[in-house]
Amino acid sequence: MSSPTGLDFYDAELRAHQEHLRAAYGIAPGDEVVDLGCGTGLTTREAARAAAPGRVVGVDVSERMLERARELAAAEGLDNVRYELGDAQVHRFNPAGFDVAISRFGTMFFSDPPAAFANIAAALRPGARLVALVWQRHDRNEWARAIDAALGDAALAPRPGADPFSLGDAEATTRLLEAAGFEGVRFADVQEPVFYGHDLDAALATVCGFQDTRAAIASLGAAEAARTVERLRAMLAAHQTAERGVALDARSWLITARRRGDDGDAARRSGPRRR
């Protein structure tokens, strides 16, 4: 198997987690669906096939990703998909326009999470479903711990609005979603690896290309940067097998919830329920 490269890398990296998201979609023919942080659109295309003749809108902040998404949708002959450039925190969705909102690791980076999830809730019809994958806490994700250990003192604290683990606290995220207008919030524990491909050099290039990793290495002098890259290589090599390539353990939450109805019923406050 070749190593994943380019804009489609994340589809290969996250394929084991993706299987859990796909199984939870619950999309029916005729549903109107929004895909939040759709990237290159794998999740959008899956939703489009399930929802047809319903329509699916993919939203992302990267025009480059959306260009690739449009290219792939056209190649697959999907005519019930459109892609919009925008930040779901402030994007002007049609009010109560969707039956399902899905997201694969696309909801952790809002600068104002309460406003963002309120905006998303307003785009959903009463009773509409939210199905999303988010990372659990940093300390439960081997891939993040291992990268930070290799970076050592150069590892950077996440910037506000750029923390991939911002929704990892299930209790806090439940309160956030309930306040935004959701109810029946549930968390399923997903433990699957992330895959960086079979080629060690390509895996190293990918990890060094992560925004935080790149910034940490750039903060170092030439000699220490070279030593840090070698530590990253050694770490990845230690997680390489012939069968899976370079793979590290990862933990995510599969979150499901429903948009609260217009009858004003109070959201349930019993805390997150895990199955």
What does this structure look like?
With 275 residues, this protein is an alpha/beta fold. The protein contains 10 helices and 9 strands. Strand 7 and strand 8 form a beta hairpin. Helix 5 (113-122) packs across helix 7 and helix 6 packs antiparallel against helix 10.
The fraction of residues in strands falls at 15-25%
What is the makeup of the main sheet? 9 strands, mixed
* Tertiary shape: globular
Q: Note the run of SSEs as H and E.
A: HHEHEHEEHEHHEHHHEEE
Instruction: Determine the fraction of residues in helical runs and give it as a percent range.
Output: 25-40%
Residue ranges: pLDDT <50 for 5 or more in a row? 1-5, 263-275
Mean pLDDT: 91
Q: What is the alpha-carbon Rg in Å? A: 19 Å
* Helix/strand/pairing category: alpha/beta
Distance between the first and last residues' Cα:
34 Å
Beta strands, count = 9
What assembly state would you assign to the polypeptide chains in this entry? single chain
| H/I helix tally | 10
In short:
The chain is an alpha/beta fold and 275 residues long. The protein has ten helices and nine strands. The chain is 38% helix and 24% strand.
Features:
alpha/beta, disordered N terminus, 24% strand, 9-stranded mixed sheet, 9 strands
